[in-house]
TrEMBL record:
All copies of domain Cupin type-2, residue ranges: 38-91
Pfam families reported in the protein's UniProt record: Cupin_2
Organism listed in the record: Lichenibacterium ramalinae
Chain intervals for the UniProt region annotation (Disordered): 1-21
Top-rank taxon: Bacteria
Protein name (database record): Cupin domain-containing protein
Length: 113
């Protein structure tokens, strides 16, 4: 097995990204990140990213606006944001979610604000 990062990453000591996300395990083609306790009432700026994202809600509620369509996210919901799609998140209630990105969001400045 070949890997570019650590085989095991603890969320409590994982590197933090520019918007508060924690970068978890990462390989060459895929990585994970944790959004933990995002405050309710927060609205993220609209973006287009150079990676695909799939996510899973652990707790809380949010709305994902994706290419003009609004989707409610709550505990147990999963979602997909295609590479290059215009999107934003509105956090309605303290929100914790895990996302996987392909290619890795933290590599080559892809997650820059």
């Amino acid at each position: 097995m070949t890997t570019t990062g650590d085989i095991k990453v603890e969320a409590t000591s994982a590197p933090q990204g520019p918007e508060g996300q924690r970068y978890l395990a990462s390989g060459r083609a895929l990585s994970m990140r944790l959004w933990e306790g995002e405050a309710g009432g927060t609205e993220k700026a609209p973006v287009r990213r150079d990676y695909e994202t799939v996510g899973y809600v652990i707790s809380g509620r949010a709305e994902l606006e994706l290419e003009g369509r609004t989707v409610s996210l709550e505990k147990g919901s999963s979602w997909v944001v295609p590479k290059g799609a215009a999107h934003t998140y509105r956090i309605i209630e303290a929100f914790t979610a895990v996302e996987a990105t392909a290619p890795p969001a933290e590599a080559h400045g892809r997650d820059a604000v």
